[in-house]
Every structure is written in C-alpha cells, then in structure tokens.
Design a protein that fits this description.
Blueprint: H1 18-48, H2 57-80, H3 83-102, H4 106-134, H5 140-149, H6 152-168, H7 172-176, H8 179-195, H9 198-202, H10 210-234, H11 243-258, H12 274-303, H13 307-328, H14 337-360, H15 368-392, H16 399-428, H17 435-450, H18 452-459
Helix pairs in contact: 1-4, 1-6, 1-8, 1-12, 1-13, 2-4, 2-10, 2-16, 3-4, 3-8, 4-16, 5-13, 5-15, 6-13, 10-11, 10-16, 12-13, 12-14, 12-15, 12-16, 12-17, 12-18, 13-15, 14-15, 14-17, 14-18, 15-16, 16-17
C-alpha cells in the first residue's frame, strides 16, 4: 500500500484504502452487534444467574478491563505499530464471548466479560491509530462517517436478533454467535497485513520515550485496579458502612488520583483545546451508556414489555446516531465542529430527560424511543466529532497517545456513569416499584450530559 500522503483526495472506499477500510468496518460491525445484543439479553442473564442487583456490574467489569486494554494499546502501538495488537484484541474478544456463553455462574460470566473488554480496549485504540496514520486528514471524517454507519445495521438488527435468540433458544447463543465472525475477521486482517506496508504504520516516531511508556503502563494498571474496586464496592451497595463501601471509597480516590496521569493535562479543569475534547467525550459516554444500560431493565421490569420490544426501542437510537454521524461528515453542511459538540450535549440531555419523564410521570412507554433517537443523534454528532478533533488537534507523532487518551476518556466516562447508576439502583431497588428510581437515574444523567455544553465551548482554540 502506498503511504497516505501519496493518495490525498481518494475516499476511504477507493482502491488505495479499500482493503483496510473493509477490515476496520467489519470489526466495528462485530463490536456493535455484541454491544447491542448483550444489552438486550442482560435482563434474562441477570435473572438466570441471580444477579439482578448486580445488573450494571456485568457492563462495568467489561469496561474496567477495557480501560487496561486501552492504556496498554497506546504503549504497544507506539512501540510496535497497531497490527499485532489488533489480532490479539480479536482473539480476546472471541474467547471472552465464548466463555460468557458457557458460564453457569455469575463470576464465570464476569470473567468472560473482562476478557471481552480487554480485547475491545486493544481493538478500539489500534483501529483509531490505523485511521490516523493510514488516512489523510481530508479522508478521516468520511471514514468515521462509515464507521458510525457500520453501527447502524447491527444496532438495528442486533437487538431483535438477540431478543429472538434469548426467547426461543437461550441467551447463551447471543454470545456464541459472535465467535465465528471474529474468526473470519482475523483471517481478513491477516490478509490485509500482507497488503499494508507496515513500515508506513511504524515509521512514525512516538512522542513518548521508554520511561513514559513504563509510567503509562503502570498508570493503566492503577486505573484498572481502582476502577475494579469501585465497581466491586458499588454493585450491591447498601446504605451502611461496610468493607465493600470502604473499598468503593478507596477505588474512587484511586480513580481521581490516577486518571489525570492518562489524559492530557487540564482535562478535568476543562482547559481549552484537546483537554476539553477529552472531557466532553467522557461526559457523553458517561451519560449515554449509563442510560441505555438501564433502559431495557426499565422497560421489561417496570412496563412489562417483552425483550423484543425493549430491543427494538434500543435499536431506534441507532437511527439517530447514523443521522448525526452522516451530518458531521459533510463539512459544507454543518456548524463549526466545536458547535456540534455543544449541540450534541443539548440533545443528549433532552433525550435522557424524555425517558426520565416517562418513568417519573408514568407516561406511555412508547415515548421512550423518541428519547433514544435524540440520544443517538447526540452521539452521532458529538462523539464522532470529538474523534475527528482529537486527531486534528494532535501532531502525527502524538496520535498514539491521543487515541489512547481519547478512548480512555471514553471508557472511563462509561465506567463512572454506569457505576454511579448501579450504586443508586442497588441501594434503592424495590422489585416492581422502581419508576421514581429509574426517573431519578435518567434525569441525573441528563444533568451530567448538560455539563458537556461548556466543555464544547472550551474546545474552540
């Protein structure tokens, strides 16, 4: 393959980039299906494995492991390039899914989710680094439009397929059916490696020296350990002091202490430029993923809908996501990019507010998909835009560190958002009487999303 700089003007589906683009889109499709399918099946998984109060723990364990994978991926790619890590990430993703499908108890299921998260953390960073180094700046927005679009079909079909498999066969098939596509994609990546000039991917000198790599690796272990303590201490929270609440407090302190070491300086202070990009990304993912984690449980547990109905409601959000991603990919149509982040934050808060009102005011559940469409539109505008901005505002030699920091902010936001929602739900859960509880959770997340509005304003440099 020729270097990216020799092919400016070519699109991501042109002959120059086609093989790499198809491999990237295939991986994104698998991850999207796994994400939507698992969200739909989890109410049944939690009931069968006696883990309703720990419902959010299955998601947050995966994300905690993903944190570690993200940090290690940034170090690995800086030292050796992104392709080897991509293959290892696929192997872990497939192995973790197989283990989840075979689990007969909740700890085994959590182990499978941890492997899946570690593989996903490796994959997502490696793919963004490939995008940053293979594709020129004018092609990246169109590539990320395709990447977001690759979420649409599996997001639309993944939830209904998952619901059908869970209802007519078993929730285990939701995890097992992920394995064959992962194997096929591993073969496709192996074939693409022969076509890609790996020198183009590794010739860029990293902006971090060996001591910096070591510090990043240890910080990654620290953040994963601290987040793990936080998850463990909050997944069955009771409003009384105990060893678990102490561990949760220690984990929270650890996250607050270590997280600033892994993202650009000034991220948590909303400093202008790249730091505010990272903070906006964390706020988006915290509010969105915590919200959609509990939507199926709300619809099935409180409104008595079927899994198929809950799955279709989740799938409606993919329509909004695709529309937002398409819009941001057309520079001639839209506002300055930092304005898209602000608009996305407003829409995300509005969507969560709609679902919160459905719960608190006992409105018809059919209004919930409207909120999910708004949430998806917000993510298509805001998250896709922060990806483009993170690469545009970073030098080429810092793409590895920027991609790793971006994804760490992404997952750390999700971990903290889901952990907070899980703690509140576990502490106040009363079977069949949780309308006010769910409403409070969704409205609290809406307020969190609103904080991304000033973060978007601070992105402007």
């Amino acid at each position: 393959m020729r270097a990216a700089t020799d092919s400016r003007g070519a699109g991501p589906l042109s002959r120059t980039y086609l093989e790499v683009t198809l491999a990237v889109l295939a991986l994104v499709t698998i991850v999207a299906f796994e994400s939507m399918a698992v969200s739909t099946a989890m109410p049944d998984v939690a009931r069968e494995l006696d883990a309703v109060r720990s419902y959010g723990f299955a998601f947050s364990v995966m994300l905690t492991a993903q944190l570690l994978g993200i940090v290690l991926a940034g170090v690995w790619s800086d030292r050796s390039g992104p392709l080897a890590g991509t293959v290892v990430g696929q192997a872990l993703l497939g192995g973790g899914s197989a283990l989840c499908g075979s689990a007969t108890n909740f700890p085994t299921f959590l182990a499978g989710r941890a492997l899946t998260g570690l593989g996903g953390g490796l994959l997502v960073v490696m793919l963004y680094i490939i995008a940053g180094r293979v594709y020129p700046e004018d092609v990246r927005p169109r590539l990320f439009t395709l990447v977001s679009a690759a979420w649409v079909l599996p997001s639309l079909l993944g939830a209904p397929i998952s619901a059908w498999l869970t209802t007519h066969l078993s929730w285990r098939w939701v995890f097992w059916c992920v394995v064959p596509p992962v194997v096929l994609t591993m073969l496709a990546i192996a074939h693409a490696r022969r076509r890609v000039n790996t020198a183009d991917l590794t010739a860029v000198v990293s902006g971090r020296d060996h001591p910096a790599h070591v510090r990043a690796a240890w910080a990654g272990l620290g953040i994963a350990f601290a987040a793990g303590l936080l998850q463990y201490g909050t997944h069955e929270l009771e409003l009384a002091w105990s060893m678990k609440t102490v561990l949760a407090a220690v984990g929270l302190v650890g996250v607050v202490a270590v997280a600033p070491l892994l993202v650009p300086a000034g991220t948590w202070l909303m400093r202008r430029g790249v730091p505010s990009v990272m903070l906006a990304r964390a706020l988006f993912t915290a509010a969105f993923y915590a919200g959609i984690t509990y939507v199926p449980l709300f619809l099935v547990g409180q409104r008595g809908t079927s899994l198929q109905t809950a799955g279709l409601a989740l799938a409606s959000g993919a329509i909004g996501w695709a529309a937002g991603a398409w819009y941001q990919g057309h520079d001639a149509l839209h506002l300055p990019r930092y304005r898209l982040v602000e608009l996305g934050a407003v829409l995300l808060a509005a969507g969560l507010g709609v679902i919160g009102a459905v719960a608190l005011l006992h409105l018809p559940w059919v209004l919930a998909p409207l909120g999910l469409v708004l949430m998806g539109l917000a993510m298509g505008l805001g998250v896709t835009t922060t990806t483009v901005l993170a690469l545009e505002l970073s030098s080429l030699e810092d793409h590895g560190a920027a991609s790793s920091s971006l994804q760490l902010a992404d997952v750390l936001g999700s971990v903290l958002g889901i952990a907070a929602a899980t703690a509140v739900f576990a502490a106040r859960h009363v079977p069949g009487q949780d309308d006010a509880l769910f409403g409070s959770i969704f409205l609290g997340l809406a307020l969190l999303a609103a904080v991304a509005v000033p973060a978007g304003q601070r992105i402007r440099t």
